[in-house]
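Try it yourself: sequence plus AHG, in.
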Amino acid sequence: MQLLSAYLKNHDTDNELVELIDILMVACKEIALQLREGALAGIHGTTSDTNVQGETQKKLDVISNDILKEVLLDNRLVRGVASEEEDEPVFGNPEGRFLVTFDPLDGSSNIDVNVSVGTIFSILEVPETGTPDSVDLFLQPGRKQVAAGYVLYGPSAVLALTTGHGVNMFTLAHTGDFLLTREQVSVPETTKEFAINMSNQRHWEPAMRNYVDDLLAGAEGPRGKNYNMRWIASMVAEVHRVLTRGGIFTYPWDSRDPKKPGKLRLMYEGNPMSMLIEQAGGLSTTCYQNIMDIQPAHIHQRVAVALGSREEVETAMQYHQDTP
Ligand code: AHG
Ligand code: MN
Ligand code: MN
Ligand code: MN
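Structure, out:
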């Protein structure tokens, strides 16, 4: 079995990018260790703080964020990091070539109930040398990502990674190494499985309501097949399922907060997951446009997300074109 860094080097990945991904995995391994100890390490529960997203921070949101920040900013290659859990980007080496954005702990409502969570990351290059430290450096569309991935902390810890040449998966071994376990992942084009938080149904746009109504109608409805539903409430686990056996995952626009076009964050969740899904042959959209084509205006920008099996996502988009 091939080691992560050896695999990347054998597939023409830039040496500095390999080094950065290795460093990122040092942080993720530490997070995995903390998670494994769980209540024994006193890491369950919430803090008294609220993050910039308006969410109460879990202890592990903060611990994971601190681990990633410390490890990354200590590396000469890193110009700066931006995180779901930080108000503003934090800068490191002024000569650093890379910017890293991350969701340190995705699915944090699942920590205390011992259900899968993950770390999602996106790597961008500093657009021009000589530009001063500023949030503007980060505001690049998802198409500019040089690598993206996540580590799912499930029954096993699995890294799903793309550097723009397909998606590969690596499993964390007891030796502390990430070993290649799935090469060139491909999302099936069609599916009979969907994932959406149905409790928000009354807040959705009519197009999304119609689309889901037709999924629920099963074989007797216009879609002509019986669908199965899953909702884990960890995007990272949902995307892993989609990459593994297909499906559509959506957290659509809803009317609860008109200022926010969805719950998920473009820079920490939408873009990296879109790159993985597209690199595996799937589709990732807002239901109106491709997520990676969005020019971000704010670092904490929200985005509506529908991603997964190509034909199913295209059908969901069609409902949005057809319904006024
Ligand atoms: P985070 O834990 O990083 O704040 O993200 C949680 C996200 C995502 O992982 C998941 O799909 C979604 O929130 C779940 O939201 P609901 O609780 O509204 O279902
Ligand atoms: Mn959060
Ligand atoms: Mn998240
Ligand atoms: Mn998070």
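One thing you can check immediately is this: The longest helix spans residues 15-37.
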